[in-house]
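Saturday, quiet lab. Running sequence design on the structure tokens for the scaffold JK sent over.
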């Protein structure tokens, strides 16, 4: 979700868009509670599933995603919501958010997604609150790479890999969320480039130039996140065309001999044809890395 803002539960307006009040219902089943996040095109609520609650289910909370009021007249917005369901509901992985179903509330004439509610903090917020030790970074990175690899195995481009699209639970379980601008690598969605819905801080240079999202663009974003996890800093001051023209080079993280550095150097290439690495390459390296490797002070 773009530019997620954490709001108080009783706040109903933000950025000029109308937000549904708390304690309202969708389809007579889902009672909307506090807002979890607001993006450029959608709003996500925590909701009580009253049917599950009635039958005594211990886990009766869901996350409900709706098209924001300001985008209700945009015919592409609800198409993207259904597209998110069509793509992400087929991805079954412990580190990927589970999307349960797509429905339309007849009373409101409004489509919505039902997803698992996940207790935890956005990784972006977690890194703001505390320094991430290398051993912890390794635990989180390994889970992220597994999630991205599962997407790419199924030819799914996430399209918006960034710190604010990952939730870390109290047990340090990482979940990749928000497939709102995802696409199949073989079937790019034409109007995505017009919406410019990705985060420019993590987007590959070609995406900023309005080219289609690809697996290679995901790799660039993944490398930006990995670099931040291990250093606390972004590898580039920015990823604009001006920065590309200046030829920014990323610093060495471990050593030139270290396989992770070789992957990062390739994955962060400005030219997508020069990246030449895949999620499988990252998975192979990270599955072999151990905390002892980090204690050798490669960097």
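Result came back. Writing it out in full:
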């Amino acid at each position: 979700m773009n530019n997620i803002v954490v709001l108080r539960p009783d706040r109903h307006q933000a950025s000029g868009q109308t937000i549904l009040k708390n304690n309202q219902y969708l389809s007579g089943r889902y009672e909307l509670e506090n807002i979890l996040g607001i993006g450029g095109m959608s709003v996500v609520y925590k909701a009580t599933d009253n049917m599950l609650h009635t039958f005594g289910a211990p886990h009766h909370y869901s996350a409900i995603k709706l098209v924001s009021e300001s985008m209700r007249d945009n015919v592409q917005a609800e198409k993207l919501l259904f597209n998110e369901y069509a793509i992400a509901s087929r991805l079954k992985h412990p580190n990927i958010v589970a999307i349960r179903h797509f429905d339309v509330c007849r009373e409101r004439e409004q489509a919505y997604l039902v997803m698992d509610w996940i207790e935890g903090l956005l990784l972006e917020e977690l890194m703001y609150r505390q320094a991430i030790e290398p051993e912890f970074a390794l635990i989180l990175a390994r889970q992220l790479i597994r999630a991205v690899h599962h997407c790419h195995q199924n030819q799914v481009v996430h399209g918006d890999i960034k710190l604010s699209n990952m939730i870390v639970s109290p047990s340090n379980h990482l979940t990749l969320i928000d497939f709102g601008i995802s696409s199949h690598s073989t079937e790019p969605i034409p109007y995505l480039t017009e919406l410019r819905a990705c985060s420019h801080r993590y987007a590959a240079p070609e995406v900023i130039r309005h080219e289609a999202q690809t697996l290679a663009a995901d790799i660039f974003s993944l490398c930006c996140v990995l670099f931040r996890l291990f250093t606390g800093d972004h590898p580039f001051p920015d990823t604009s065309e001006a920065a590309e023209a200046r030829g920014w080079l990323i610093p060495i993280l471990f050593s030139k001999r270290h396989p992770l550095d070789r992957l990062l150097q390739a994955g962060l290439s400005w030219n997508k044809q020069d990246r030449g690495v895949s999620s499988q390459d990252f998975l192979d390296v990270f599955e072999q890395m151990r905390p002892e490797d980090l204690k050798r002070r490669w960097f």
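Notes for JK: The first strand starts at residue 13 and ends at 14. The CA atoms of residues 90 and 99 lie 9 Å apart. Ask whether to fix the surface positions before the next round.
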